[in-house]
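input
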Amino acid sequence: MAKIKNKWGIRAQLVAGIVLVTVGAIALIGFLSIKMLEWNALFRKAKEAEVILTFIQTLIQEGQDANMSGLKRFISKTAENGVINTLVIVDEKGKTIFITGRELLISKDVVGRTIFLLSNLNIQMVGGGWFEGIGEELLISAPAKGVDGSITFSMPLSDIREEGANFRWFIFFYALFDSVIIIALATYIFSKNIIRPMNLLRKITEDIAGGMIEQRVDIKAGGEIGSFASSFNIMADRLEEKIKTLERLNKDLLAKQEELVRSEKLATVGRLAAGIAHEIGNPLGAMLGYVDILKKAVSSKHEAVSSESKEILERLEKEIGRIDKTVRGLLDFSRPSQVVLHDVDVNKAVRDSVALLSPQFSDIGISFDIRLDEALPHILMDEAMLQQVLLNLFLNAKDAMEGSGTIIVETGVSFPYPPPEGDKGGGQEARFRRRKNDLADTDFTARHSEISGQRSVVISVTDTGKGIAESDIGKIFDPFFTTKEQGKGTGLGLAVSLGIVQVYNGGIKVKSAFGKGTTFEVLLPVEEKRR
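output
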């Protein structure tokens, strides 16, 4: 069944309802007031008729001619004053013994409606009715005292009709004035307490539907409207929470999808690298051996040409060495990692790695700024693997700064969410305390396994280089990806480092602002039993 759409707005419906109810109520009150006035006037007329009837009966009862003459004068006087129109007295046989005015009073053509009926008095109204108003006159009938017969006389109602007409005009203007006041006041109250809140709710609903999910209704009212607004805000809060949850789940899903694609790609590259490295590695080893033999032969037997030949052989050895280094990197990347666990002092590993590179870095204007947490817990890991990760990050920072700058190395602890009792911090994905060198206007891109419900040691390496372009952030851990000049890098350092860290259930996060520098943060879980 099709629903009929109401084209009227709630304001129009309320105003129309108020107008109908107000006009109807005031019209009913006015009608009843007029009827009450008419009946009060008729009651006064009835009392007046009763007095006149008593006077007439007294004159008739005495039966003297003088009294009859006085009766005529009385009737004439009252007729002049508009009190009585006519008077008819008949005997028991219906013969008229006295009449003044119209004979129609005794005619059957004159029919009235009884409005008052007493024991010896019958008062009828000619004309009029509930909706017609007051009639033309009253007919009063009663037995005559002193003679057998009856007395009938009429009284005009023109004075009551005129008074009723004036009162009806008064009621009309009074009702009109009251209707305007009531309608205006009721419309204002309804608009303030219902229409405006409903319009505000409609606007906020449209805003939320348009994506402004933080919008809320600010209605400080009691009753149903206030309760409805409060329920609406609760619904909006839950909707916002659900939307944020969905956004977070979608983001996590995309991250998992990217991680899955990347893992598949890494597995494929690993298998390919293993095959290539195996096929190339042995011939390269033989070539290096042959080059060494040639160098020795040239040096000992052909001294005349040994200088030029030696230079060529050295270049050949260097280039073959580069190839051998790349092949070894492929083997490191593709070789199944063996988890070796030792109790490792992270701060010591950092100091040893810095000491190893400081001499050559200082020669090109690069210094280290070390900020270590001396209360840092130990971790279970292969110390050599940890140093390899650190050396890769330090070398990567050096290349990013292009010859001069500062590498800031910090250690600390991150906490899971919710934190253990007595600990402070938080973050389901290993969130860190912000340090003074952190770049506030960029976001971390997660490249790590989740470390849920466990504390982690954090090693932060920050350079003052040119940063990483936003378009390259998602690629830096891919094998063979590099932004360095040809011949300066293989693009395997970060990929190998991430692989090592993930073997120990850790992760790496990167934060960079192009033109300002980059921060790498290595997360390694703490074995709580060793605390």
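quick obs: The chain has eight helices and 14 strands.
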